[in-house]
What we know:
Layout: E1 7-13, E2 30-31, E3 34-35, H1 38-46, E4 51-56, H2 60-66, E5 72-75, H3 82-87, E6 99-104, H4 112-125, E7 129-134, E8 140-144, E9 150-155, H5 161-166, E10 170-178, H6 179-188, H7 202-209, E11 214-218, H8 231-251, E12 255-256, E13 263-264, E14 269-270, E15 275-276, E16 281-283, E17 287-288, E18 293-294, E19 299-301, E20 304-305, E21 310-311, E22 316-317, E23 322-323, E24 328-331, E25 334-336, E26 339-340, E27 345-348, E28 351-353, E29 355-357, E30 362-363, E31 368-370, E32 380-382, E33 387-388, E34 393-395, E35 398-400, E36 405-406, E37 411-412, E38 421-422, H9 434-446
Parallel strand pairs: 1-4, 1-6, 4-5, 7-11, 12-15, 13-16, 14-17, 15-18, 16-19, 17-20, 18-21, 19-22, 20-23, 21-24, 22-25, 23-26, 24-27, 25-28, 26-29, 27-30, 29-32, 30-33, 31-34, 32-35, 33-36, 34-37, 36-38
Antiparallel strand pairs: 2-3, 6-10, 7-10, 8-9
Helix pairs in contact: 6-7
Amino acid sequence: xxxxxxxxxxxxxxxxxxxxxxxxxxxxxxxxxxxxxxxxxxxxxxxxxxxxxxxxxxxxxxxxxxxxxxxxxxxxxxxxxxxxxxxxxxxxxxxxxxxxxxxxxxxxxxxxxxxxxxxxxxxxxxxxxxxxxxxxxxxxxxxxxxxxxxxxxxxxxxxxxxxxxxxxxxxxxxxxxxxxxxxxxxxxxxxxxxxxxxxxxxxxxxxxxxxxxxxxxxxxxxxxxxxxxxxxxxxxxxxxxxxxxxxxxxxxxxxxxxxxxxxxxxxxxxxxxxxxxxxxxxxxxxxxxxxxxxxxxxxxxxxxxxxxxxxxxxxxxxxxxxxxxxxxxxxxxxxxxxxxxxxxxxxxxxxxxxxxxxxxxxxxxxxxxxxxxxxxxxxxxxxxxxxxxxxxxxxxxxxxxxxxxxxxxxxxxxxxxxxxxxxxxxxxxxxxxxxxxxxxxxxxxxx
Length: 447
C-alpha cells in the first residue's frame, strides 16, 4: 500500500456488556459461528501489524483463553471510558513511533477495504489522524466547518435540536493516528464530566487545535460500523453478515435459492454448482464440494461433503461427518462422527453414528447403529456393497462384511461374514383368536 510506517492495533474489549443481560462476556457471544472479538482480530491480522493488543475487562481470563496466541492482552481493571482503555496499552508502546489503529470488539462488520482506504488517505494527506465516519447519525456526531474540514466530535446528548437536525455524519470511533498524537492528546484530556471518564473522542478536537490535520473517511455502508450492544443488535448484525456470506458464495458459482432464509456460518466453504435450498443451517468449519445438493431444512455441523452429495430434506449431519462422492442422505436421517464412502445411501429415518461405511453400502428405512452403552461410544464398520435392511439395529462394536446383508427387523450383535445374510429376530408366533378373546374380557369388565 506504500505506507512504510509500522502500525500497532488496539482492540477495545473491556466493556461490561450489561445490555446483553448475559452471564458471558459480550465479546464471546457468537456471530455466524465466530465470537464477536474474532472479527476485529481477523481484521487486525489482515493488516500485518507490528503488534496487536486487546484491552480486556470483564471475564478477562476467559477472553484471553479463547484467543490465546492471537494478541497481547492488557487489563482495564477500572472502567473509566474509552480514552482510559487506550491508555492501558501505553506502557507497552512507549517507544513505538508508528501509527495506532483503534478498533472495537463489538463492531464486527468492518471490512479490511475500509482500513486500507484509511491508511492510504493518511499517507496521501499527511494527516495526524484519520477517522472513519458513518453516513448515519451515531451517538457521536462529526462537526465540520464551512470548508468541510473536521473540527470536533459532538455527543448527541449535548447537541441542540438544530444540530441534531443538521448533523447527519456519525463518528464510528475507529481512528488511525500517529501514536505520539494519541498519547499526547490523552495526557491532556481530563475526566471532569458527568461520567468521570476519559473520552477518546476528545483527541479529534485536540489534533485540530494542534494543527496535526484530521481527515474523516465516510463509509459507503452504515452496516460496516454496526455496533452490537444488545441481543437485538446481535441478530441485526447476523442478518447483515449472512447476506454477505450468501452473496459471496453466489458470486463464486453457488446457487442459493432463498438467501434470506439460509443460515451459513463464516467458516463454511462451498464448491461451485452446489445448490442450497431454503431453511438450511450450515455451521462450523463445514466444507461442501462441487455439485452438492442440500435440500430444504437440513442442518449441517462441521462436516465434509465431497462432490455430488445429495442430502435432505430435513437431514442432520453432526460434527465429524464425512460423506464421500455421490452419497445420498434422505429425509430425517442423522449422521454423526462417521465416514461414509462413495455412493452410500441412507434415504430415510435412519441414524448412523460412529460408523465407518465402505463404498456402495445402503441403509433401509429406520436402520440404526447402536453406538452407546451408557458408558462409552463404540464404532460400527460396514463393508463395501453391504445392504442393511429396514428397522435393523447394529449393536456396536460390530462389523458387517462386504457384500453381506442384514434382514429387515434384525438386531445384530455379532460380526457378519462377507457375503452372508444376517437374520437376528425372534420367530413370529400367531395366536389365533386373541383379538376376540381380549374384546370379550374388556366388555365383561365394563358391564
